[in-house]
Amino acid sequence: MPKARCRSWLILLGASALVAPNLAHAQNAKTATAREQALEERLLRLEAEMAALRADLGAARSEQAQTAAAASQAAARSEETATKLATLESRPTAPAEGFRVGGTSFKLGGFVKAVASATRFDDGMLAGGSLGKEFYLPQQIPVGGSATRDFMANARQTRLFFTSSTPLGGKELKSHIEFDFALATAPAGAQRATNAYTPTLRRAFLTYDRFLVGQEWTTFQNPALLPESTDFVGPLEGTVFVRQMIVQYRQPLGQGLDLLLALENPQTETVTTINPVLSDNDQDRVPDLVAKLVYKKPNLDLHLAGLVRQLSVHDGGAGDDSLGWGLSAGGKFAFGPDGRHDIRLSATYGNGIGRYLGLGYAPDAVFDRTALGNRLLNVDNIAGFASLKLGWTANLRSTFAAGYQHADYPDGIAIPGLANVSAYSVAANLFWSPVKNLDIGIEVRHAGREVASGLKGQMDRFEMAAKYTF
Description:
The protein is an alpha+beta fold. It has one helix spanning 3-90, and strands at residues 99-101, 104-121, 148-154, 159-168, 171-180, 200-208, 211-217, 243-254, 257-264, 268-271, 279-281, 288-297, 300-315, 318-335, 341-351, 365-367, 376-378, 380-391, 396-408, 420-432, 438-451, 456-469. It has one domain: Porin. The strands form two sheets. Strands 2-4-5-6-7-8-9-12-13-14-15-18-19-20-21-22 form a 16-stranded antiparallel beta barrel. The radius of gyration is 48 Å and the shape is elongated.
């Protein structure tokens, strides 16, 4: 090979040797720069992610702190509420009606009732101040005279009551006191100027658990059966009607059935063979015993009662005792829309129970020391009433009622000619309640009385009444 050519190759190889390392270094530098950029980008991303994590962590911690604070506040409020509730529960709550003093709730109530009546007696005249002028009293229907007319207006049937209730031993100790002005005899000259009448006690009793003690309707009676009337009672001759001192125990039997047992104040009422006026004998020795079954369901009220009593008359070391007894059954059956209509029935039969019927229309027994030799001879009684109530509308209604009583005196003895034997009445009324608790009514009544001599008397009465219950 020529030397010049060889020299050229050597120069080329040397140049290549010198250029190659520089090219490699340049390539390596370029690669390093790309890696650094990639690493820097990753670092930036990591820093961004760390910053985001720190922000999330800070937000989470802040939210946790807020939640803890809210929980603490809620716990504080809950504790405060519980404290307030405990404080309130420790205090006696005010009753829905009435007022409270200490732990006892009190309530006042009653009604104002105004009555006006025009009466025609076919067979006589009543004396001034007689109760028979102011309400239907069959024993005061005159007999054996000429026709008379009478007009009377009064507010004597106005009634007030007062109740209390006190928690005691997990139960309620309750009391009830009630009075009106109806049964006290009108004082002489009452109508002359002021019409002042004497308040009379009606009911006064206490109840605790299943016991009732005090003056209340006799257990032998079911006053819920009495029909609505402008009169004080209505079919008085046909119903048991007594309020007296009783000790009563109620035993629920389940399914709406209750058993009531009672000891009640005794009182023996007698007439003699010549005097028809009832004698209030007060030598009784044992209380009257009464048992009653009561069954109540919606729109239904039934009762069956039994009475056993000892009649006693002892005066001046002489006298007699006899056994009296009676049975009474009754019911109220509501029907029609909203139970606006109802039928009410009551029937009573007994021997020696005269004072329990019709405010003592007939005596318990006949007692005459001279004519009967100190013997008590009981009188049999049968009585009953029935009524039909029709609710024409929600605030307009009528009641049609009839009552009857008959006394059967012992055979073979003389009976006073004016001793009451039988009585009856029929009545119809119309009541309107324009607003709640206000009742306005009119009523017509026809009644009759018969005495042992055969004399009869009749009464016709038109009556109006307005009553506001509060």
